[in-house]
Design the sequence.
């Protein structure tokens, strides 16, 4: 449930990159080919998604303190 909730804050493209990379083990090149975008775009989507997730988890951990 936590993973599903976390993924729900991402855009569809960000979610696709994160799931394909971390759950299915695809490389950025493979994800780029699958999505029809450049590897650099996949890298940017990955970085933005990880920043969003990090922020969400940090805020949850420090909520109310």
Sequence:
């Amino acid at each position: 449930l936590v993973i599903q909730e976390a993924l729900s804050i991402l855009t569809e493209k960000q979610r696709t990159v994160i799931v394909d990379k971390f759950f299915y083990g695809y490389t950025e090149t493979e994800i780029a080919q699958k999505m029809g975008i450049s590897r650099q775009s996949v890298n940017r989507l990955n970085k933005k998604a990880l920043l969003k997730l990090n922020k969400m988890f940090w805020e949850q951990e420090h909520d109310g303190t």
In short: The chain has four helices and no strands. The domain at 2-61 is CATH 1.10.10.10 (Arc Repressor Mutant, subunit A). The chain has one domain: 2-61. The radius of gyration is 13 Å.
